Amino acid sequence: MASVTMVMPAMGESVMEATVLQWLKQEGDLVAEEESVLEIATDKVDSEVPAPYAGRLQKILVQKGEIVKIGAPLALILTEGETLEATSVLPIPTASSSQPTSARPLQPPLATQASVHKPSDGRFYSPLVRHIAQQEQIAPQVLSQIPGTGKNNRVTKHDLLAYLQPRLPVGQPPEPDVSFVSIAPEDEVIQLDRVRLMISERMVASRQTVPHVTSFVEADVTDLVRWRTKNKEHFEQRTGTSLTYTVLLLQAIIKAIKDFPMMNAWVTKDRIIKKKDIHVGLAVALSNNNLIVPVIKYADQLTLVELAHNVQTLVHKARHQQLVPDELAGATYTVSNLGSFRNLMGTPIIVQPQVAIMALGAITKKPAVLENAQGEDTIAIRHRMYLSHSYDHRVIDGALGGGFAKRVADYLQSFVDWVYW
Questions:
Q1: What's the confidence (pLDDT) of residue 152?
Q2: Which fold is adopted by the domain 114-171?
Q3: CATH code reported for the domain at 211-418
Q4: Alpha carbons 116 and 67: distance in angstroms, whole number
Q5: How far apart are CA 366 and CA 195, in angstroms?
């Protein structure tokens, strides 16, 4: 028999770590190749990790609740060959090493890379608290001395952040003190779930890092509404896909992104990365009041029919928890359709490292002033909507950000002149 190391696979371009939710197999169990062995959770989606080889699960290296980096060892699988020995474990290959694989030492699991991941004081620490402690390099003996306000004196995230407060960089705002909040017996207390906590942390980080500017443009979409009303039934019969307003609006946005390539970019501390391919993230509201953003890959290369099919498929998978990590990674621009909730406009928060996001307001009928060929003004009922475009003022100024929003509106108002199936 021979043992091989099962490692944490890549989970998408922007996913660097995951939390082990549970092991589906126990030590000693037989596993088939590609059979699911454990469940993990990233900041984007929950998924199962399959076994890369058939054999027997010899040893589990990472326990439930621990955070694992991409590429870190998860378990040892005993396959046909020779008897298991500690020195026979295949190490994790690294691009920077020129040594043969068999000569490199086995990379230890994340839990043993930093002893703070599993303090020996017998006290319980949540994965989030252990992760923050590791990031801030808090020694186990120091962590054990921090007073806890949680159940059974457990150290909470807020306890740890309060301890770290003197160490925060100058200018970083402290978290508000909510210890004075009183809870009446008739109040309902709802604990934020993991997804909601991740959304909260990412949105707060974006607002603290990025100077947001939002431009608003009103578009007359009367011709678009009429075109959809005329063609939606034939479109669905021909393609088997619904012709939604979201699809039509997306096509105009994608067309404008091609005109304004700076909108299709990522930003780091001192670099702007202009992305060649256009991958559009589409915010989808879920029935549990959470939010997920699947990504339409290579959106600029899709026809209207292909775009409609992609949107329908991704929305269905999002609402039935069927998305895989790759379908949530790599977005270069994001769109949020507030109009589906009858909202007129909003101020969306940028999804880092992207530089912009657009919110689509509801399409409503309004009286509008129109000028005829003779220059005379008349009043008519028109279909109109607001576009809200938030952009990163570190790299995009008002002329560029506002000009992009205006270009989207122009395309919507001349919709029948350029739409293609």
A1: 65
A2: Dihydrolipoamide Transferase (4.10.320)
A3: 3.30.559.10
A4: 12
A5: 39
